[in-house]
Amino acid sequence: xxxxxxxxxxxxxxxxxxxxxxxxxxxxxxxxxIVTLSGYVGSxxxxxxxxxxxxxxxxxxxxxxEIAVKLxxxxxxxxxxxxxxxxxxxxxxxxxxxxxxxVMVEDGWITLSGxxxxxxxxxxxxxxxxxxMGVKGVSDDIHLKPRISVTLIKADIEDALKRRARNxxxxxxxxxxxxxxxxxxxxxSSYERxxxxxxxxCAPGVLHVKNNMTIE
Length: 216
Hints:
The chain is α/β, with parallel strands linked by helices. It has helices spanning 4-17, 44-55, 79-91, 119-129, 153-164, 190-201; strands at 26-31, 34-41, 62-69, 101-106, 109-116, 137-144, 172-177, 180-187, 208-211, 214-215. The strands form 3 sheets. Strands 7, 8, 9 and 10 form a 4-stranded mixed sheet that branches. Strands 1-2-3 form a 3-stranded mixed sheet.
């Protein structure tokens, strides 16, 4: 198991290696495997990329992001401009419903609301707008339409984990309660933990995923 100092050094190295991140004004602290990123960056996209870079590091148990977004004069845009751009981007994004998503922008912060059928559509909507110029943050208030069909959900999730996870899927426990999936067991990295969550979200009818898996 890595020490906090080793994790800190690796996270700093990963931030320096990531070409889309300027780590000059980013601070990294680690306690009990929990990484805290602080400081500021020039865009929300850069903030997201810094977060993803830290999550890639082996041994990271959790991540707290306290990075502020400071836009330069060139990147500043009015809320009305951002809202119009977001609406157009969502309209041109494949696999997204065209009439059920709503957009609100306040001080550069985008809030998406409405309903979609699948979790991947929630992710697609957020990913489509997070890299736009002038954006300081994105709140995902999109809800999944309930489509309960729990009979085969557990088997589908376990089969998906067997195909994707590097470790033995038998070590992963899947419990179903209504439309909520709870994952338990042991994995070897945060990547495998996230992979298990993604597999659970891909099952039809799932509205909530609780990941109680531990990393060893």
